[in-house]
Protein backbone atom coordinates (compact mmCIF):
# COMPACT_ATOMS: atom_id res chain seq x y z
CA UNK A 1 0.00 0.00 0.00
CA UNK A 2 2.80 2.43 0.91
CA UNK A 3 4.63 1.44 -2.27
CA UNK A 4 1.58 2.39 -4.36
CA UNK A 5 1.53 5.79 -2.69
CA UNK A 6 5.22 6.23 -3.49
CA UNK A 7 4.66 5.26 -7.10
CA UNK A 8 1.71 7.63 -7.45
CA UNK A 9 3.62 10.45 -5.76
CA UNK A 10 6.52 10.07 -8.15
CA UNK A 11 4.34 10.18 -11.24
CA UNK A 12 2.19 13.07 -10.08
CA UNK A 13 3.05 16.63 -10.97
CA UNK A 14 1.79 17.75 -7.56
CA UNK A 15 3.89 15.28 -5.59
CA UNK A 16 3.66 15.48 -1.82
CA UNK A 17 7.45 15.07 -1.72
CA UNK A 18 9.02 18.34 -2.86
CA UNK A 19 11.98 18.29 -5.25
CA UNK A 20 15.49 17.82 -3.81
CA UNK A 21 16.41 21.37 -4.75
CA UNK A 22 15.01 22.73 -1.48
CA UNK A 23 17.73 24.94 0.08
CA UNK A 24 19.49 23.23 2.98
CA UNK A 25 18.01 19.83 2.13
CA UNK A 26 20.29 17.18 0.73
CA UNK A 27 17.79 14.33 1.17
CA UNK A 28 14.10 14.00 0.49
CA UNK A 29 13.74 11.19 3.04
CA UNK A 30 15.65 10.04 6.12
CA UNK A 31 14.86 6.44 7.14
CA UNK A 32 14.93 5.64 10.86
CA UNK A 33 14.60 1.96 11.77
CA UNK A 34 15.91 -0.85 13.96
CA UNK A 35 18.16 -2.79 11.63
CA UNK A 36 17.75 -6.19 13.26
CA UNK A 37 13.96 -5.94 12.93
CA UNK A 38 13.43 -4.51 9.46
CA UNK A 39 16.66 -3.97 7.50
CA UNK A 40 16.49 -7.15 5.42
CA UNK A 41 12.81 -6.90 4.59
CA UNK A 42 10.52 -3.88 4.85
CA UNK A 43 13.15 -1.16 5.12
CA UNK A 44 15.26 -2.54 2.26
CA UNK A 45 12.21 -2.73 0.01
CA UNK A 46 11.13 0.79 0.95
CA UNK A 47 14.63 2.19 0.49
CA UNK A 48 15.13 0.67 -2.96
CA UNK A 49 11.66 1.68 -4.12
CA UNK A 50 12.19 5.28 -3.03
CA UNK A 51 15.53 5.38 -4.86
CA UNK A 52 13.98 3.70 -7.92
CA UNK A 53 11.42 6.49 -8.29
CA UNK A 54 14.08 9.19 -7.85
CA UNK A 55 13.57 10.13 -4.19
CA UNK A 56 16.88 10.97 -2.51
CA UNK A 57 16.93 8.76 0.59
CA UNK A 58 19.36 8.44 3.49
CA UNK A 59 19.70 5.33 5.62
CA UNK A 60 22.45 4.43 8.04
CA UNK A 61 25.43 2.30 7.12
CA UNK A 62 24.41 -1.34 7.41
CA UNK A 63 27.92 -2.15 8.61
CA UNK A 64 27.39 -0.12 11.81
CA UNK A 65 28.44 -2.58 14.48
CA UNK A 66 26.81 -2.90 17.87
CA UNK A 67 28.65 -0.93 20.50
CA UNK A 68 30.25 1.47 18.03
CA UNK A 69 29.61 5.20 18.15
CA UNK A 70 26.71 6.42 16.05
CA UNK A 71 27.88 7.96 12.81
CA UNK A 72 28.36 11.70 13.26
CA UNK A 73 26.77 12.11 9.84
CA UNK A 74 23.38 10.92 11.10
CA UNK A 75 22.39 14.14 12.90
CA UNK A 76 23.53 16.16 9.88
CA UNK A 77 21.56 13.89 7.53
CA UNK A 78 18.44 14.41 9.66
CA UNK A 79 19.03 18.18 9.54
CA UNK A 80 19.40 17.99 5.75
CA UNK A 81 16.20 15.99 5.14
CA UNK A 82 12.67 17.10 4.35
CA UNK A 83 10.90 14.00 5.58
CA UNK A 84 11.74 11.37 8.18
CA UNK A 85 10.10 7.96 7.86
CA UNK A 86 10.30 6.29 11.27
CA UNK A 87 9.74 2.53 11.11
CA UNK A 88 8.65 1.65 14.64
CA UNK A 89 9.15 -2.06 15.17
CA UNK A 90 9.01 -4.34 18.20
CA UNK A 91 12.66 -3.81 19.16
CA UNK A 92 13.01 -0.16 18.03
CA UNK A 93 13.07 1.19 21.61
CA UNK A 94 15.65 -1.40 22.71
CA UNK A 95 18.27 0.57 20.78
CA UNK A 96 19.50 3.68 22.55
CA UNK A 97 20.92 4.78 19.16
CA UNK A 98 17.44 4.62 17.59
CA UNK A 99 16.09 6.69 20.47
CA UNK A 100 18.89 9.28 20.21
CA UNK A 101 18.13 9.50 16.49
CA UNK A 102 14.40 9.81 17.21
CA UNK A 103 14.99 12.64 19.68
CA UNK A 104 16.94 14.50 16.95
CA UNK A 105 14.11 13.85 14.47
CA UNK A 106 11.55 15.30 16.90
CA UNK A 107 13.83 18.30 17.54
CA UNK A 108 13.96 18.96 13.78
CA UNK A 109 10.23 18.39 13.47
CA UNK A 110 9.70 21.12 16.06
CA UNK A 111 12.44 23.56 15.03
CA UNK A 112 12.88 23.02 11.30
CA UNK A 113 9.47 21.76 10.24
CA UNK A 114 10.75 18.30 9.30
CA UNK A 115 7.78 16.18 8.25
CA UNK A 116 7.68 12.92 10.20
CA UNK A 117 5.82 9.87 8.92
CA UNK A 118 5.60 6.93 11.33
CA UNK A 119 5.20 3.35 10.17
CA UNK A 120 4.00 0.98 12.90
CA UNK A 121 5.69 -2.23 11.74
CA UNK A 122 3.69 -5.03 13.37
CA UNK A 123 3.33 -3.09 16.61
CA UNK A 124 0.21 -1.50 18.03
CA UNK A 125 0.46 2.31 17.89
CA UNK A 126 -0.96 2.55 21.42
CA UNK A 127 1.82 0.25 22.72
CA UNK A 128 4.32 2.69 21.23
CA UNK A 129 2.44 5.75 22.51
CA UNK A 130 2.10 4.47 26.07
CA UNK A 131 5.30 2.40 26.04
CA UNK A 132 3.72 -0.94 26.81
CA UNK A 133 4.95 -4.44 25.99
CA UNK A 134 8.42 -4.53 24.40
CA UNK A 135 8.61 -0.73 24.69
CA UNK A 136 8.08 -0.88 28.48
CA UNK A 137 10.73 -3.60 28.76
CA UNK A 138 13.20 -1.54 26.74
CA UNK A 139 12.68 1.57 28.86
CA UNK A 140 13.04 -0.37 32.10
CA UNK A 141 16.48 -1.46 30.86
CA UNK A 142 17.37 2.06 29.71
CA UNK A 143 16.39 3.53 33.08
CA UNK A 144 18.76 1.08 34.80
CA UNK A 145 21.57 1.43 32.29
CA UNK A 146 21.36 5.23 32.04
CA UNK A 147 20.35 6.10 35.61
CA UNK A 148 22.93 8.91 35.56
CA UNK A 149 21.33 10.26 32.34
CA UNK A 150 17.67 9.88 33.30
CA UNK A 151 16.80 13.19 31.60
CA UNK A 152 17.92 11.66 28.30
CA UNK A 153 15.69 8.64 28.89
CA UNK A 154 12.75 10.97 29.67
CA UNK A 155 13.45 12.86 26.43
CA UNK A 156 13.46 9.55 24.50
CA UNK A 157 10.10 8.63 26.05
CA UNK A 158 8.65 12.01 25.11
CA UNK A 159 9.99 11.74 21.54
CA UNK A 160 8.52 8.27 21.14
CA UNK A 161 5.14 9.45 22.44
CA UNK A 162 5.17 12.48 20.15
CA UNK A 163 5.90 10.40 17.05
CA UNK A 164 3.33 7.77 18.05
CA UNK A 165 0.70 10.52 18.24
CA UNK A 166 1.23 11.33 14.55
CA UNK A 167 -0.93 9.82 11.86
CA UNK A 168 0.95 7.09 10.03
CA UNK A 169 0.73 3.60 8.58
CA UNK A 170 -0.07 0.57 10.68
CA UNK A 171 1.25 -2.67 9.18
CA UNK A 172 -0.30 -5.63 10.94
CA UNK A 173 -1.05 -9.28 10.50
CA UNK A 174 -4.34 -9.95 8.73
UniProtKB/TrEMBL annotation:
<dbReference type="Pfam" id="PF01582">
    <property type="entry name" value="TIR"/>
</dbReference>
<dbReference type="InterPro" id="IPR035897">
    <property type="entry name" value="Toll_tir_struct_dom_sf"/>
</dbReference>
<keyword id="KW-0378">Hydrolase</keyword>
<dbReference type="GO" id="GO:0061809">
    <property type="term" value="F:NAD+ nucleosidase activity, cyclic ADP-ribose generating"/>
</dbReference>
<dbReference type="InterPro" id="IPR000157">
    <property type="entry name" value="TIR_dom"/>
</dbReference>
<protein>
    <recommendedName>
        <fullName>ADP-ribosyl cyclase/cyclic ADP-ribose hydrolase</fullName>
        <ecNumber>3.2.2.6</ecNumber>
    </recommendedName>
</protein>
<dbReference type="GO" id="GO:0007165">
    <property type="term" value="P:signal transduction"/>
</dbReference>
<feature type="domain" description="TIR">
    <location>
        <begin position="25"/>
        <end position="174"/>
    </location>
</feature>
<keyword id="KW-0520">NAD</keyword>
Amino acid sequence: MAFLAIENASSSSSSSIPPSATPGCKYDVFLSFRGTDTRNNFTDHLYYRLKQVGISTFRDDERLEQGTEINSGLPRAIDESKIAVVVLSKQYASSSWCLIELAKIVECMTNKKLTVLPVFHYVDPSDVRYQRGSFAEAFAKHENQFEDKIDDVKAWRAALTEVANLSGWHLKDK
